[in-house]
Design a protein that fits this description.
mainly alpha; Glycerol uptake facilitator protein; 11 helices
């Protein structure tokens, strides 16, 4: 299997299980209906682990453009392979979402909530405030990439690493996922969002394109900053880009703080 196919298949598995659990707890007449946030976060963590177990030995199981770009930024992955990995991840995410659609085929027409249908495929914020939503995605993906790099420094029994990364996903979802649904992965959000746009889902709403930039830009900024932070603090390697991104993130923080009261009113 090529690395392209591995990233495609791994990301497809990720979305099949991750999107599948959201469908299970959200769509009417599903036996998992009403399972709640804990079920979703646990299953998403296991979804990441299963995707990583499936293809980690072939491609490294990035399954996430933010991680791929972050690793390339600090020299742990060749830039020449980045476009191919991202393309594979996008295709895999789209196909995984299509599979979820067919698994729950009769349940779409049985569900009258268009927001729930969109939520199976992509994230939308609990409170719409783009700068705050962007911060949430930046911090979540910062924690993801920093965590993955830190976990990689520990000696573990063979095969344990993907499971521990899955636990990292669980705690990010439980602790940081409430405001936006923790995309923390541009492919995980955009690929299924495109599927939602294309598929003939009964009673669906629009695909939320006005928000779609947040789960793309936020994870990329957060992922790259997480990698640079690891390099700066853990490895003692200074980078101008680290300080540039830190300033950008601080500006976003200030902008969010200065506008959030308008949302609260």
């Amino acid at each position: 299997m090529s690395t392209f196919t591995a990233e495609l298949v791994g990301t497809m598995i990720l979305i099949l299980f991750g999107g599948g659990v959201v469908a299970s707890v959200s769509l009417n007449k599903s036996k998992g209906f009403g399972g709640g946030w804990v079920v979703i976060t646990l299953a998403w963590g296991l979804a990441v682990s299963m995707g990583a177990y499936a293809v980690g030995g072939i491609s490294g199981a990035h399954l996430n453009p933010a991680l791929t770009i972050a690793l390339a930024t600090i020299g742990k992955f060749p830039w020449s392979d980045v476009p191919m990995y991202i393309l594979a991840q996008m295709i895999g995410a789209f196909l995984g979402a299509v599979l979820v659609y067919f698994v729950y085929l009769p349940h779409w027409s049985a569900t009258n909530n268009p927001e729930a249908k969109l939520g199976v495929f992509s994230t939308m914020p609990a409170i719409h405030h783009p700068l705050s939503n962007l911060i949430t995605e930046i911090i979540g993906t910062f924690a993801l990439v920093l965590g993955i790099l830190a976990i990689g420094t520990n000696k573990m029994t063979d095969g344990l690493n993907p499971f521990v990364v899955g636990l990292l996903i669980v705690v990010i979802g439980m602790a940081l996922g409430g405001p936006t649904g923790y995309a923390i992965n541009p492919a995980r959000d955009l690929g299924p969002r495109i599927a939602h746009f294309i598929l003939p889902i009964p009673g669906k709403r629009d695909s939320g394109w006005g928000y779609a930039w947040v789960p793309i830009v936020g994870p990329i900024i957060g992922g790259v900053f997480g990698a640079l932070f690891y390099q700066q603090i853990f490895e003692g390697k200074s980078s101008v880009l680290f300080w540039v991104l830190l300033v950008v993130i601080l500006v976003v923080f200030i902008g969010a703080q200065s506008t959030v009261k308008k949302v609260e009113k």
